[in-house]
Amino acid sequence: MKQDNNKNRCPFTVPEGYFDNLEGNIMNMLPRTAAVPQKKARTLTFTKRLQHIAYAATIAAVFFLGSYILFTSNSKSETVATDDYYSNEYIDEMLNSYPIDDYTFYCYVTENY
Questions:
Q1: How high is the pLDDT of residue 1?
Q2: Residue 78 predicted with pLDDT over 60
Q3: DSSP readout, the chain?
Q4: What CA–CA distance (Å, rounded) separates 105 from 52?
Q5: What is the dihedral of CA 73, 74, 79, 80, to 10 degrees?
């Protein structure tokens, strides 16, 4: 029951006139130093901006040219290889050199390609 009586009371007290000079007291405690000059924001000149754009364009050109060469060279080599692989001479040579029948060869060709 004692807690209900103490519920509304604040146990802390502040001396009279404490907040009247609080700001001045805090400012007097701070060290007196000159204000640090702010650094100016660094701006890029036109030539620097142009240089950054040139770097980005070079990287993009190398990427696209490399991917173009990579994909076109693979597709050409695959078409040449498949044309040679399915030529009649090659199939006849395979049938004559390996001891398999036509059906097994047909299954092998259709499953793999």
A1: 46
A2: no
A3: -HHHHHSS--S----TTTTTSHHHHHHHHS---PPPPPPPPP---HHHHHHHHHHHHHHHHHHHHHHHHHHHHHHHHHHHHHHHHT-HHHHHHHHHHS---HHHHHHHHHHH-
A4: 60
A5: 60
pLDDT at 62: 96
Residue 4 has a pLDDT of 58
What's the first-to-final CA gap in the chain, in angstroms?
91
Whole-number Å distance between alpha carbons of 94 and 60: 47
- Residue 108 neighbours by CB distance under 10 Å: 13
Give the whole-angstrom CA distance, residue 63 versus residue 57: 10
pLDDT digits (tens, 9 = 90+) for 42-75: 787 889 999 999 999 999 999 999 999 888 875 5
What are the tokens at 105?
């060869």
